Amino acid sequence: TSINQWLDPNTNYTTLRAFIQRAIWKLEDDGHVAQPVAFIWYQGENDTLNTTDANLYESRLKTFLTQFNSL
């Protein structure tokens, strides 16, 4: 996928956000304190297919991380 497919309000972003929110709610329902501090991001192969996307990847990833941190 391209990083653009993971930026809000695209489906991948909203699906990921909903999945994480459900996991947090489940942990809290089970009596745990849920405070995610890290995640693994393995994406970007499609952003190497053309120079424009490759050059914009860093700024798009920063945008994604800003959006993701608002969860």
Describe the protein's architecture and organization.
The chain is mainly α and 71 residues long. It is 54% helix and 0% strand. It has helices at residues 11-29, 51-69. The radius of gyration is 14 Å and the shape is elongated. The two termini are 22 Å apart.
From the alpha-carbon coordinates, what is the Rg to the nearest angstrom? 14 Å
Succession of helices and strands: HH
Question: For the residues shown, what is the average pLDDT?
Answer: 90
Helix-strand makeup class: mainly alpha
Kindly report the oligomeric state of this protein: single chain
Largest sheet: none
**Termini gap:** 22 Å
Residue share in β-strands: under 5%
Shape: elongated
Catalogue the unreliable spans: none
Number of helices: 2
Question: Helical content, roughly?
Answer: 40-55%
**Number of E-state strands:** 0
